[in-house]
Protein backbone atom coordinates (compact mmCIF):
# COMPACT_ATOMS: atom_id res chain seq x y z
CA UNK A 1 0.00 0.00 0.00
CA UNK A 2 1.42 3.41 -0.99
CA UNK A 3 1.87 6.16 1.56
CA UNK A 4 0.23 9.48 0.70
CA UNK A 5 1.87 12.83 1.54
CA UNK A 6 -0.83 13.36 4.16
CA UNK A 7 -0.05 10.02 5.81
CA UNK A 8 3.67 10.75 5.72
CA UNK A 9 3.19 14.18 7.28
CA UNK A 10 0.99 12.74 10.03
CA UNK A 11 3.61 10.11 10.83
CA UNK A 12 6.37 12.72 10.82
CA UNK A 13 4.40 14.96 13.19
CA UNK A 14 3.80 12.00 15.47
CA UNK A 15 7.51 11.25 15.60
CA UNK A 16 8.44 14.90 16.13
CA UNK A 17 5.97 15.16 19.00
CA UNK A 18 8.03 12.70 21.03
CA UNK A 19 11.38 14.42 20.51
CA UNK A 20 11.23 17.30 23.04
CA UNK A 21 10.37 14.96 25.92
CA UNK A 22 13.00 12.41 24.93
CA UNK A 23 15.72 15.03 24.54
CA UNK A 24 14.84 16.70 27.86
CA UNK A 25 14.80 13.37 29.72
CA UNK A 26 18.13 12.35 28.20
CA UNK A 27 19.73 15.72 29.03
CA UNK A 28 18.61 15.47 32.64
CA UNK A 29 19.91 11.93 32.91
CA UNK A 30 23.24 12.77 31.26
CA UNK A 31 23.69 15.67 33.70
CA UNK A 32 23.82 13.14 36.56
CA UNK A 33 26.96 11.47 35.16
CA UNK A 34 30.39 13.12 34.84
CA UNK A 35 30.85 13.96 31.15
CA UNK A 36 34.65 13.63 30.91
CA UNK A 37 36.27 12.39 27.72
CA UNK A 38 37.69 8.88 27.56
CA UNK A 39 41.47 9.06 27.38
CA UNK A 40 43.74 6.38 25.93
CA UNK A 41 45.83 6.12 29.13
CA UNK A 42 49.13 6.88 27.45
CA UNK A 43 51.26 9.97 27.11
CA UNK A 44 50.45 12.24 24.20
CA UNK A 45 48.54 15.34 23.11
CA UNK A 46 45.69 16.12 25.44
CA UNK A 47 44.41 18.51 28.09
CA UNK A 48 44.35 16.28 31.19
CA UNK A 49 47.32 15.64 33.47
CA UNK A 50 48.31 11.98 33.58
CA UNK A 51 51.58 11.55 35.47
CA UNK A 52 55.00 12.91 36.39
CA UNK A 53 58.00 11.00 35.11
CA UNK A 54 61.74 11.55 35.42
CA UNK A 55 63.15 13.58 32.56
CA UNK A 56 65.14 11.57 30.04
CA UNK A 57 67.22 11.96 26.92
CA UNK A 58 65.33 13.92 24.30
CA UNK A 59 63.15 15.91 26.72
CA UNK A 60 63.52 19.62 26.01
CA UNK A 61 64.16 22.04 28.85
CA UNK A 62 60.79 23.69 28.25
CA UNK A 63 59.05 20.39 29.04
CA UNK A 64 60.53 20.22 32.56
CA UNK A 65 58.10 20.92 35.40
CA UNK A 66 60.41 23.07 37.52
CA UNK A 67 58.01 23.37 40.46
CA UNK A 68 57.80 19.58 40.85
CA UNK A 69 61.53 19.18 40.12
CA UNK A 70 62.40 21.72 42.81
CA UNK A 71 61.16 19.34 45.52
CA UNK A 72 63.83 16.72 44.73
CA UNK A 73 67.19 16.19 43.09
CA UNK A 74 65.53 14.79 39.94
CA UNK A 75 64.05 16.72 37.05
CA UNK A 76 60.45 15.72 36.17
CA UNK A 77 58.35 16.01 33.06
CA UNK A 78 54.59 16.51 33.31
CA UNK A 79 52.90 14.09 30.90
CA UNK A 80 49.41 14.64 29.60
CA UNK A 81 47.01 11.86 28.64
CA UNK A 82 46.49 11.25 24.94
CA UNK A 83 42.93 11.70 23.76
CA UNK A 84 41.55 11.10 20.30
CA UNK A 85 38.16 11.46 18.69
CA UNK A 86 36.92 7.87 18.75
CA UNK A 87 33.90 6.46 16.96
CA UNK A 88 31.06 4.64 18.68
CA UNK A 89 27.90 3.01 17.37
CA UNK A 90 24.77 2.59 19.48
CA UNK A 91 21.89 0.26 18.69
CA UNK A 92 18.53 -0.19 20.43
CA UNK A 93 16.27 -3.12 19.59
CA UNK A 94 12.76 -2.20 18.54
CA UNK A 95 11.30 -5.69 18.47
CA UNK A 96 7.64 -5.95 19.54
CA UNK A 97 8.59 -7.24 22.97
CA UNK A 98 10.34 -3.95 23.74
CA UNK A 99 6.95 -2.22 24.00
CA UNK A 100 6.08 -4.23 27.11
CA UNK A 101 5.55 -2.76 30.55
CA UNK A 102 4.15 -4.65 33.51
CA UNK A 103 2.50 -1.61 35.06
CA UNK A 104 1.50 2.01 34.49
CA UNK A 105 4.08 3.18 37.04
CA UNK A 106 7.07 2.30 34.87
CA UNK A 107 8.15 2.90 31.27
CA UNK A 108 8.23 0.39 28.48
CA UNK A 109 11.58 -1.19 27.74
CA UNK A 110 11.72 0.78 24.50
CA UNK A 111 11.10 4.09 26.29
CA UNK A 112 13.81 3.41 28.86
CA UNK A 113 16.15 2.22 26.13
CA UNK A 114 15.63 5.38 24.09
CA UNK A 115 16.47 7.62 27.04
CA UNK A 116 19.55 5.59 28.00
CA UNK A 117 20.81 5.41 24.42
CA UNK A 118 20.41 9.13 23.80
CA UNK A 119 21.88 10.11 27.19
CA UNK A 120 24.89 7.88 26.58
CA UNK A 121 25.31 9.41 23.14
CA UNK A 122 25.19 12.90 24.64
CA UNK A 123 27.91 12.04 27.14
CA UNK A 124 30.15 10.66 24.42
CA UNK A 125 29.56 13.68 22.20
CA UNK A 126 30.50 15.97 25.08
CA UNK A 127 33.70 13.96 25.39
CA UNK A 128 34.59 14.84 21.80
CA UNK A 129 33.74 11.45 20.33
CA UNK A 130 31.97 10.61 17.09
CA UNK A 131 28.68 8.83 17.75
CA UNK A 132 25.94 7.36 15.59
CA UNK A 133 23.36 4.64 15.59
CA UNK A 134 24.71 1.40 14.14
CA UNK A 135 24.12 1.63 10.42
CA UNK A 136 24.12 5.44 10.42
CA UNK A 137 27.10 7.82 10.08
CA UNK A 138 29.00 8.57 13.28
CA UNK A 139 29.45 12.32 13.72
CA UNK A 140 30.71 14.69 16.37
CA UNK A 141 29.16 17.96 17.50
CA UNK A 142 26.08 19.22 19.29
CA UNK A 143 23.70 18.76 16.36
CA UNK A 144 24.37 15.02 16.34
CA UNK A 145 22.36 14.59 19.55
CA UNK A 146 19.26 15.88 17.72
CA UNK A 147 19.92 13.45 14.86
CA UNK A 148 20.27 10.58 17.32
CA UNK A 149 16.94 11.49 18.93
CA UNK A 150 15.16 11.58 15.58
CA UNK A 151 16.63 8.25 14.49
CA UNK A 152 15.80 6.60 17.81
CA UNK A 153 12.14 7.67 17.70
CA UNK A 154 11.82 6.53 14.09
CA UNK A 155 13.78 3.29 14.59
CA UNK A 156 12.24 -0.01 13.49
CA UNK A 157 15.19 -2.45 13.55
CA UNK A 158 14.55 -5.77 15.30
CA UNK A 159 18.03 -7.27 14.86
CA UNK A 160 21.28 -5.33 14.82
CA UNK A 161 22.66 -4.58 11.31
CA UNK A 162 25.79 -6.71 11.64
CA UNK A 163 27.03 -5.64 8.21
CA UNK A 164 27.34 -2.05 9.47
CA UNK A 165 30.21 -2.75 11.87
CA UNK A 166 33.59 -1.29 11.00
CA UNK A 167 37.09 -1.97 12.37
CA UNK A 168 37.97 -0.43 15.74
CA UNK A 169 34.45 0.80 16.52
CA UNK A 170 33.04 0.65 20.00
CA UNK A 171 29.50 -0.72 19.89
CA UNK A 172 26.72 -0.68 22.49
CA UNK A 173 23.77 -3.05 21.95
CA UNK A 174 20.64 -2.52 24.08
CA UNK A 175 17.87 -5.14 23.92
CA UNK A 176 15.81 -7.48 26.06
CA UNK A 177 17.55 -10.41 24.33
CA UNK A 178 14.47 -12.58 24.84
CA UNK A 179 14.04 -13.66 21.22
CA UNK A 180 16.23 -16.09 19.26
CA UNK A 181 19.78 -15.00 20.19
CA UNK A 182 21.51 -16.40 17.10
CA UNK A 183 22.10 -12.87 15.79
CA UNK A 184 24.06 -12.05 18.94
CA UNK A 185 26.55 -14.85 18.28
CA UNK A 186 26.86 -13.69 14.66
CA UNK A 187 27.42 -10.09 15.73
CA UNK A 188 30.09 -10.95 18.30
CA UNK A 189 31.83 -13.26 15.85
CA UNK A 190 32.03 -10.45 13.31
CA UNK A 191 33.13 -8.01 16.02
CA UNK A 192 36.03 -10.24 17.04
CA UNK A 193 37.26 -10.37 13.45
CA UNK A 194 37.15 -6.58 13.11
CA UNK A 195 38.66 -5.65 16.45
CA UNK A 196 35.36 -4.17 17.61
CA UNK A 197 34.84 -3.83 21.38
CA UNK A 198 31.59 -3.11 23.11
CA UNK A 199 28.77 -3.83 25.52
CA UNK A 200 25.64 -5.96 25.58
CA UNK A 201 23.01 -4.35 27.83
CA UNK A 202 19.82 -6.19 28.68
CA UNK A 203 16.73 -4.15 29.59
CA UNK A 204 13.91 -6.05 31.28
CA UNK A 205 10.64 -5.22 32.98
CA UNK A 206 10.58 -6.43 36.61
CA UNK A 207 7.73 -8.82 35.75
CA UNK A 208 9.99 -10.45 33.16
CA UNK A 209 12.80 -10.73 35.69
CA UNK A 210 10.71 -12.13 38.58
CA UNK A 211 7.66 -13.72 36.87
CA UNK A 212 5.08 -12.82 39.59
CA UNK A 213 2.14 -14.42 37.74
CA UNK A 214 -0.33 -16.94 39.14
CA UNK A 215 -3.51 -18.56 37.90
CA UNK A 216 -4.91 -18.07 34.41
CA UNK A 217 -2.82 -15.62 32.39
CA UNK A 218 -2.64 -14.81 28.68
CA UNK A 219 0.89 -13.92 27.62
CA UNK A 220 1.31 -11.79 24.50
CA UNK A 221 4.32 -10.60 22.51
CA UNK A 222 3.52 -9.01 19.19
CA UNK A 223 1.38 -11.51 17.31
CA UNK A 224 2.36 -14.40 19.61
CA UNK A 225 -0.04 -15.50 22.34
CA UNK A 226 0.06 -18.19 25.00
CA UNK A 227 -2.76 -19.06 27.41
CA UNK A 228 -1.81 -20.60 30.73
CA UNK A 229 -4.21 -21.84 33.40
CA UNK A 230 -1.43 -22.16 35.96
CA UNK A 231 1.14 -19.42 35.39
CA UNK A 232 2.67 -20.03 38.82
CA UNK A 233 3.56 -23.53 37.75
CA UNK A 234 5.71 -22.09 34.96
CA UNK A 235 7.74 -19.83 37.27
CA UNK A 236 10.63 -22.16 38.10
CA UNK A 237 11.15 -23.24 34.49
CA UNK A 238 10.91 -19.67 33.24
CA UNK A 239 13.41 -18.29 35.75
CA UNK A 240 15.83 -21.14 34.99
CA UNK A 241 15.53 -20.39 31.27
CA UNK A 242 16.14 -16.68 31.88
CA UNK A 243 19.21 -17.40 34.02
CA UNK A 244 20.50 -19.70 31.29
CA UNK A 245 20.03 -16.99 28.66
CA UNK A 246 21.83 -14.39 30.79
CA UNK A 247 24.71 -16.76 31.49
CA UNK A 248 24.98 -17.44 27.75
CA UNK A 249 25.02 -13.72 26.95
CA UNK A 250 27.66 -13.05 29.61
CA UNK A 251 29.80 -15.91 28.31
CA UNK A 252 29.51 -14.81 24.70
CA UNK A 253 30.42 -11.25 25.66
CA UNK A 254 33.42 -12.33 27.70
CA UNK A 255 34.82 -14.50 24.93
CA UNK A 256 34.56 -11.57 22.51
CA UNK A 257 36.21 -9.16 24.96
CA UNK A 258 32.89 -7.38 25.52
CA UNK A 259 30.96 -6.70 28.73
CA UNK A 260 27.41 -7.68 29.66
CA UNK A 261 25.08 -5.74 31.96
CA UNK A 262 21.42 -5.79 32.95
CA UNK A 263 18.84 -3.20 33.98
CA UNK A 264 15.24 -3.34 35.22
CA UNK A 265 12.86 -0.55 34.26
CA UNK A 266 11.83 0.08 37.88
CA UNK A 267 15.46 0.83 38.81
CA UNK A 268 17.18 4.22 38.74
CA UNK A 269 18.17 4.96 35.11
CA UNK A 270 21.11 7.03 36.37
CA UNK A 271 22.68 3.87 37.78
CA UNK A 272 22.29 2.16 34.41
CA UNK A 273 23.82 5.12 32.57
CA UNK A 274 26.70 5.28 35.02
CA UNK A 275 27.44 1.59 34.45
CA UNK A 276 27.39 2.05 30.69
CA UNK A 277 29.63 5.11 30.91
CA UNK A 278 32.14 3.46 33.22
CA UNK A 279 32.18 0.24 31.19
CA UNK A 280 32.88 2.20 28.02
CA UNK A 281 35.66 4.06 29.76
CA UNK A 282 37.32 0.78 30.77
CA UNK A 283 37.03 -0.51 27.22
CA UNK A 284 38.72 2.60 25.85
CA UNK A 285 41.92 2.03 27.79
How would you describe this structure to a colleague?
With 285 residues, the chain is of the alpha/beta class. The protein is 40% helix and 18% strand. It has eight helices and nine strands. The protein has helices spanning 5-30, 66-69, 109-126, 143-154, 182-194, 206-210, 235-255, 269-283, and strands at residues 49-54, 76-80, 87-92, 130-133, 170-175, 197-204, 217-221, 224-228, 259-264. The strands form three sheets. A five-stranded parallel sheet has the order 4-3-5-6-9. A two-stranded antiparallel sheet has the order 1-2. Strands 7-8 form a two-stranded antiparallel ribbon. Helix 1 packs across helix 3, helix 3 (109-126) packs antiparallel against helix 4 (143-154) and helix 3 (109-126) crosses helix 8 (269-283). The radius of gyration is 23 Å and the shape is elongated. Mean pLDDT is 79; it is low at 35-50.
Amino acid sequence: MSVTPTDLRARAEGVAGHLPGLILSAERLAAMVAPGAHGLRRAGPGEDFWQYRPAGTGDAARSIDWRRSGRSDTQFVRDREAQTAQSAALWLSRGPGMDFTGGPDRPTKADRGQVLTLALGMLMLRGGEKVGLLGHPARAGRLQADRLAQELVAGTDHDAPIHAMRPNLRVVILSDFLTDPAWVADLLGQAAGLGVSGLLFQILDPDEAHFPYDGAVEFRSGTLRHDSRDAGGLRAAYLARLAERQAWLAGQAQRAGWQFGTHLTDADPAQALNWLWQALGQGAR
